[in-house]
TrEMBL record:
Homoheptamer arranged in a ring structure. 2 heptameric Hsp10 rings interact with a Hsp60 tetradecamer in the structure of a back-to-back double heptameric ring to form the symmetrical football complex. Gene3D superfamilies: GroES chaperonin (2.30.33.40). Co-chaperonin implicated in mitochondrial protein import and macromolecular assembly. Together with Hsp60, facilitates the correct folding of imported proteins. May also prevent misfolding and promote the refolding and proper assembly of unfolded polypeptides generated under stress conditions in the mitochondrial matrix. The functional units of these chaperonins consist of heptameric rings of the large subunit Hsp60, which function as a back-to-back double ring. Keywords: Chaperone. This is 10 kDa heat shock protein, mitochondrial. It holds the Pfam family Cpn10. It comes from Pavo cristatus. CDD domains: cpn10 (cd00320). It comes from the Eukaryota. SUPFAM superfamilies: GroES-like.
Length: 133
């Protein structure tokens, strides 16, 4: 049996968490990624990502020319679809969430330009992994 102060603290904590989730949602919707998300929503098991910028300077301060830079395989998830429908008819959710950093394959994906920014659309199964903080 919980004491009255424990119940009150638990309810207060739930209210704070709900408020934080609401604020985070508003922030994402107001950011550029959020604006792109409102204009484009992936379907089924598709994931919309924004590739990270390539490093143009080494740690020692040497400038790397564009032709010598490799393809950036790290990206941030901008939007996800609802999930793929399995043979049993149930929807299997996408394995990544908005805001997570993922590892992409070197080739593949569909390039999409939204608000003069390049985004890429991948299937959930094509994403190689996600980075843990």
């Amino acid at each position: 049996m919980k004491a009255a102060w424990e119940r009150a603290a638990s309810e207060e904590l739930e209210a704070v968490v709900a408020q934080l989730c609401f604020c985070l949602h508003r922030f994402l919707m107001q950011s550029k990624a959020g604006k792109a998300f409102r204009k484009f929503l992936p379907l089924f098991d598709r994931v919309l990502v924004e590739r990270c910028a390539a490093e143009t300077v080494t740690k020692g301060g040497i400038m790397i020319p564009e032709k010598a830079q490799g393809k950036v395989l790290q990206a941030t998830v901008v939007a996800v679809g609802s999930g793929a429908r399995g043979k049993d008819g149930e929807i299997h959710p996408v394995s990544v969430k908005v805001g997570e950093k993922v590892l992409l394959p070197e080739y593949g994906g569909t390039k999409i330009v939204l608000e003069d920014k390049d985004y890429y659309l991948f299937r959930d199964g094509d994403i190689l992994g996600k980075y843990l903080d």
